[in-house]
Amino acid sequence: MLLALALRELRRRAVRSTLTILGIAIGVAALVLLGALSEKMGRLVAGGRDFATGQITVSGAGTGALTGMTRGGLLSGEQLEAVRAVPGVDAVAPIVMFPLSDTPASLPFTMSPLVFGVDLGALVRNHANRHVPPPAVHAGRLVPAPGSDEVVLGSEVARLYGATVGATLTIRGRAFQVVGVLDPTLTGPDSLVFMPFETAERLLVDSEPLLRHLLLVPGARVLPIATAAAVFWTTGADPSAVAARIAATVPGLTVLSPAEAARQVDRALAVLDGLIVGSAVVALLVASLAVANTMFTAVVERRREIGIKRAVGATRRQVIHQLLAEAVVLGLAGSLLGLAGGAAGVLGLNSLTAHLGATAFLITTRLVVAATTLPAALAALAGLWPAWRAARLPPSDAIRWS
Q1: CA 310 → CA 62, 278, 296, 326, 349, distances in Å?
Q2: CA angle, residues 231, 234, 240, in degrees to nearest 5
């Protein structure tokens, strides 16, 4: 009954109600788009956090240990051997990471396909340091044969190139055999091509003229080329203490302990979420002001009608409930319309970014719940003051209003 009355009153003022609903829908669509971007970035960063907190990460001095993997902070063979000799170090897995294509195309908040050269067997063997299991294999196997031209693809890379187990994938002019495809993780591994460290190192040298020239210099010791290394500690050792020991023992390194990596990632994620979600909340608050304006106008126009209802026995609570129901209906209608528009926008943008190797948006259950319930709640709050004002109006004064 209350819902039917609310719908009837809103239909009586169809133009104003429609404009209010559209205003809410725009705010909700912004919430969905920005929230989906935040959810995807959150998953991506969380995956990086899980990886970084399961190891001590070292890179060349002058680069951030988390970003040094792709910024060229090279580690020398002497440094890698020195790290292996530090007390408390159980194993060292050098990593070489570079774009899959010579001219990678990317959009903001997306991750272009990358070659990730590492001894995956070493990562799997040292999973005891990690808080999460290794990625699950959708087809084939997880670990390429050492020194081979075999690769394991993340789900996004496999989809981008239409590659399956047994297929041949050409990377920087060289053919590789796909021996495994990972399950989707919605994190970094989805955009990676895993290959043995030695193979990735050779591929990078063959495709980079500068590195090839350096190898020809008499006495040059360029190999191994590692952009970073994952260091695993012995059972029972304190990883922070081992990281401090590495930094003090081996010069020319940037060393990141698991605890510091977690702090860096959490700070970055908090800033990013604050910017993205804050912008979406502002859009919703603006939409709530539209609801408040609509309800105030409705109360002014219907003062006589409200006074008559009060004179014939309607209670203040009934008046408040009816006006709040109208506000909630406006909020729900706008949220559903905005949710549909935002979801359509996410599908379209993901279709665009997928052609560059990775989707940038992720709609989750909690985002859908927030986009549905939050606008209705804000609309109810926006309509509460006008409804209370209307209910407090003396019936005799309201009836005289014309």
Answers
A1: 75, 42, 18, 18, 52
A2: 65
Q: Which long-range contacts (CB under 8 A, 24 or more apart) does 319-324 make?
A: 319/387, 319/390, 319/391, 320/384, 320/387, 320/388, 320/390, 320/391, 321/2, 322/2, 322/5, 322/6, 322/9, 323/295, 323/298, 323/299, 323/383, 323/386, 323/387, 323/390, 324/380, 324/383, 324/384, 324/387
Per-residue model confidence as pLDDT tens digits over 326-340? 888 888 888 899 999
CA distances from 385 to 105, 166, 327 (A): 52, 66, 11
- Contact between residue 247 and residue 253 where contact means Cβ atoms under 8 Å apart: yes
- DSSP-derived 3-state class of residue 256: strand
CA distance 206 to 80: 22
Average pLDDT of span 354-366? 79
